[in-house]
UniProtKB/TrEMBL annotation:
This is Uncharacterized protein. It comes from the Bacteria.
């Protein structure tokens, strides 16, 4: 469980980073998309990069790797 690995400040930063990355995105509420972003944020925090900027950057890197939704032809 996440609460066992991180202090309160880090957990708050992780939540804020997830919300910042996903807001205003058409797929920002999609479970799979959010999960991919969250996994990158968690990996960053586990590596000791727990600042809000570092976590947002990690989440944004997940967006680059997440395939974009295909446009209707």
């Amino acid at each position: 469980m996440i609460s066992e690995h991180f202090d309160t400040r880090t957990r708050i930063n992780m939540k804020l980073a997830l919300d910042r990355v996903c807001r205003n995105r058409p797929d920002g509420e999609d479970h799979g998309f959010r999960r991919s972003v969250a996994e990158n944020i968690i990996r960053s925090a586990l590596a000791g990069r727990t600042g809000i900027g570092q976590l947002v950057d990690a989440g944004e890197r997940a967006m680059i790797r997440t395939p974009a939704e295909k446009e209707p032809a």
